[in-house]
Amino acid sequence: MKDPILVTGGFGFIGSAVARRLLQEGHIVHVVDIHGPLPDHTSICTNYLIGDLRDPEVCFKVVRGCKTVLHFAANMGGMGAIHDANDFAIYKDNHLMTLQLLSASIDAAVECFFFASSACVYPSTIPSKTDISLREGDVWSKGLYPDPQGLYGFDKLNTELILSYFSHKLSIRIARFHNIFGPGGAWFNGREKAPAALLRKAFVAKHAIKPGSKARFEVWGDGSQRRSFLYIDDCVEGILALLRSDHTEPVNIGSDHAVTIKALAHLALDCAKVMPDDVLFEYQTERPLGVAARNSNNDTALKVLHPWKPRVPLEEGMRRTGVWIASQLDTVLQQVDSAKVLDRLGSSTVVNLRTAVTFAILLPITSRGTESEVQCLVNLRCFAESLVRTIWRDVFVPDTETGFGIKIILAIDYDDTFLVNGNKAEAILRSFGLDVSTIICHQPRGHVCSLWRHCARAAYSDPAVTYFVLMGDDVEILVEGWMAKIHSSFLSISRERCTPFGFGCVAFRDLSFPGMPTFPVVHRTHIDIFSGDVIPEIFVNQDGDPFLFQLYRRWGCSLMLEDVTLRNSLGGSGDARYAKLSTPSWSFQTLDRAVDVTRQWLQVRSPNVQAKLAIDVVVPSFRVDVPLLERILTLRPSPTASTMFIIIIDDPRSSAIDVLQQKYGHRVDVRIRVNDGNLGASASRNRGMDESSSDWIIYLDDDIEPDPDLIHRAEAHIRAHPNAAGFVGNVHFPPPDSIFKSAVHLSGVTYFWNIAEKIEDDLPWGVTANLISRRVNDGVQFDLRFPKTGGGEDIDFCARKKELSSLGEGFYSAPDVSVMHPWWSNGRRSYWRFYGWGFGDSSLVGMYPQFVSWDYAPNSSELLLCASFISSSGILLQHFSPIWMGLQLAVIVFLVNFLHDLYRRLWAEPFDESSMPARLGDRHLVQGCMRIIAILESTLIRMSSEAGKTVGLLKQGKWYYLGKRFDWFTGRWGDGPKRNERKNSLQRFILVILIYIAWNNI
What we know:
Blueprint: E1 5-8, H1 13-24, E2 29-33, E3 47-50, H2 56-63, E4 68-71, H3 87-107, E5 112-118, E6 133-134, H4 150-165, E7 171-177, E8 180-181, H5 194-208, E9 215-220, E10 226-228, E11 230-231, H6 232-244, E12 250-253, E13 258-260, H7 261-271, E14 279-284, E15 295-296, H8 299-304, H9 314-335, H10 338-345, E16 355-365, H11 373-396, E17 402-413, H12 417-420, H13 424-431, E18 436-441, H14 448-460, E19 465-470, E20 475-477, H15 482-497, E21 505-510, E22 520-523, H16 524-529, H17 544-553, E23 558-568, H18 586-605, E24 613-621, H19 626-633, E25 641-649, H20 657-664, E26 670-674, H21 681-691, E27 696-700, E28 705-706, H22 710-720, E29 726-732, H23 739-747, E30 761-763, E31 770-774, H24 793-803, E32 811-820, H25 832-841, H26 843-847, E33 852-854, H27 860-877, H28 880-908, H29 929-955, E34 964-966, H30 976-1000
Parallel strand pairs: 1-2, 1-4, 2-3, 4-5, 5-7, 6-15, 7-12, 8-11, 9-14, 16-17, 16-19, 17-18, 21-23, 24-25, 24-27, 25-26, 29-32
Antiparallel strand pairs: 10-13, 19-22, 20-23, 21-22, 27-31, 28-32, 29-31, 30-32, 33-34
Helix pairs in contact: 1-6, 2-3, 3-4, 5-7, 5-9, 11-13, 17-18, 23-29, 25-29, 27-28, 28-29, 28-30
Organism: Armillaria luteobubalina
Domain NAD-dependent epimerase/dehydratase: 5-254
Family: Belongs to the NAD(P)-dependent epimerase/dehydratase family.
């Protein structure tokens, strides 16, 4: 089997043509390229690797096992790319690639090394416009020093000399190409050669010609420049002939027939069937022109490569290339706005390979708070090492045509004598070759945000600075190439959101504080918007980073990059070297003002860009049942909304926390927080509110199953009623397929779970299993006087939200915002939950006297309390009569409540199954005898709830509220509910009296 042949740049123009031919001849062909693979790569190579030859590891990997290396890879192009402004970028890229590849080839015992050189090695200053036939030895025609065309030519010549030095270790082959062209080459991006450029313009002119007018036809220079051009097939034959030969000196591979650029232009027009009289020639003499004349002398090639010689005439090569370019152009025009594309493709572009993008790292540093003063320098050195390790590719060998730079603005407290004396920190950073400026700040200790502001202003004064990175000295950056990725992300934001470039915030992913944008990057545009300030003065040392992220989240322009990671050894979610000082209410007035400023700025520059609706989902969770929480975390907002999921874990001992963090902690739209202890649902929801920076919050229980489009529908309701205090969604239960489940519905304790189906607007309240509220700075949170497990806090929350609504509207129904709530404990019988709800509801009586009225008679729990009092007095007085009276009364109370509920549910007030909180097909209770038993059990559930209310009042010392009833509809339905409750209480009380009298008269 033949040894593999490595072709570098094997998906490029010449490289792919040679690789394809070698593969056809039966060789094993390995390709390495920084781009690709090509769609037809199986016809080009046996296998391939996408890699950067500037990386020594890539070079060592690809040469392994190969005996022949064909080196075509280069940063190159036509006159749009090979010009003075790109000299250093091109030289550095190409020289580094060749050195790394050559070193790896020698170490791997490669036998033959082919190098693709260029006619640019020849002198560029020969003042002649006649044909100059360049022989291989003419490189030295200028005397002692050569004069290649730009640093591109210098690199090619230097490589030839280096290869000659190693000729005792490698069999060298060097081909100096003279303007190779043909199908498959660059044809429109600024890297094309003259034949492709002129053919493209000719076909563009053909499309653009209109009756009575001429199409423009651009030509760089005055058209008198002379060049020779070699068709790609002849080039490949020449390369193969050189490889088969034993010639180790450089040899020209080109055409010895030169033409003027003007003649080439006419030939291109002829290929496109366009008459020269139908176009208006525009000669661009200010564009890069190259040398005045150049032609290949093929005497050596014809001798050493015999029988090779150019066989495809220029006219035929242009015709074939024209057919291919025409097909490429037609494909493009079918996909895009043809008028704009034709206008752009009618001109050639100049490629600027070194568009400088400078990142300013804002780096406050202190020697305080560490084990020793020296420790801060150890941390700084670790940071510097990680910085240099991760920026080398972006700064020195970027993968794109954009060059990157780094600048560090170091901020030190004026009274930090350890760091100020001798400027130790700057010395460490400069030892790594970093560009550093130090500012001494007179700020209170620990005011990190103030230091950031000072650093940002200093960096902003340098017009070369593009990006501002808020960083800390105890950070270790983990991923190489982060500058290019962040820059690319800003480009993507601008393209996808149609915002001005630089509008947005891109954050590192902090492995020590998952999901939190602790180290954001903003563009100079942000500093422009806020007149030189990176964050408002209100911030001390906390909240500045999430402020930036939340600000641009309003337009969907905030990103946290999954693959751009760092680790923060101090701070974050843990302890810091200073007292953490949060900024109260920054997510209200401070953020609102910033949003207004940004909106006004954007309105002028991109008036069509609309802000997104920020809707957060807050879920308190004691269970930490990951599969249940996943049903919530898989919800997705619409393209016009932005959503964060805030999960508050209320059981810090749960073993599922790590599982949840591992699966979802990395998501920027998921924030997982763990309480120090079991604080209860209300406290957890309050913490979720504090974590949120949105306009609206959806409160969900952790065990519900939401409809997939819940957030979409919530957004629709919000946009329909933007002034609402909130919205009440529907909560359904699975089918009540048991006596107990039916009893729960019959008791009425679930009546409000689907209140959104029963009242359209101005709802009194809704359960927190599915509740939406406007997030405003009104001070309204869930009151912690209510039980941890719930009961009354939802009514109180909605009432205060409505009362303090600055826009004057209350809660609207959102019946299609629906969730399914499971039966508690899988439907196992328990009355304790309903007792707890009643216990919590008891607080409402004293809190809302406007919704409270006297009942006409005591309820079951109050009567049982009387019975207990009577029996207890008999026990204390040692009289049996009171004891028996109390026992009689208790029995009668139970009996009457059973009988009265049977009367109500079977005759006077039949239960309306169509209104129960279940999906339409599930609204049916048990039937027959089971229905009778369910009604009787519903009495026990109702009495449990009433007992909870009574005990709650007694424990609060508010016995004087016994006999008062809270209106669950808060006046929404007038006196109807109050009258109905009074009627039922009075009927039951009369029955109790009558049965007691009858019993004692028997």
